[in-house]
Design a protein that fits this description.
The chain has 212 residues and is α/β, with parallel strands linked by helices. The protein has six helices and twelve strands. It is globular and about 45 Å long.
Amino acid sequence: MSQYFEVHPDNPQPRLLKQAAQILHGGGIAAVPTDSSYALVCHLDDKTAAENLRRIRGVDDKHHLTLLCRDLSELASYARVDNKQYRLLKLATPGPFTFILEATKEVPRRVSHPSRRTVGLRVPHHKVTQELLAVFGQPLLATTLIAPGQTDPMNDPHQIRDRFQKQIQAVVDAGACPMQPTTVLDLTGDEPVLVRSGRGDVSRLGLALAAV
């Protein structure tokens, strides 16, 4: 049975976030709100938790998982970023963008893409997620909370608890999210490539994008 933490969206209770962080440090999986939709998160360095995350989400090792980071200073530890990429990241973060970047050795191989050695990274613009990351003390491994067989992300924390209460260990309820996935940009080539159009508005980045 998953634990349910109802927190204020603008002033989340530190006591409840600490309890959720303890569950994550103990190898648990949690559903948390973000500025795009709810996400499933777990400890980056916990192999079993990462495997469970993929199983619950119904994806294989070729599906890019994402590192949720508090700010760009954390990104540098997990991805190789040149000056051009960094300027783009500064324009887009925090916000509903996910960037595919070349992973550093700090990222476990089982987490990065098996053939490309890449990883998704993002800095969410959501008070609760930011505070949880601060309490947790490091980035969280994440994936959009889309139930197997569905195409839209889940938005209602009560429905999330009912659907996954036997599979995840915590639900952090901060109310409804926008229910739209992030915009995904692949920055590993010479020019950025639009992988998925989502809530992030690429026009604010001033890019002429190719799409896959």
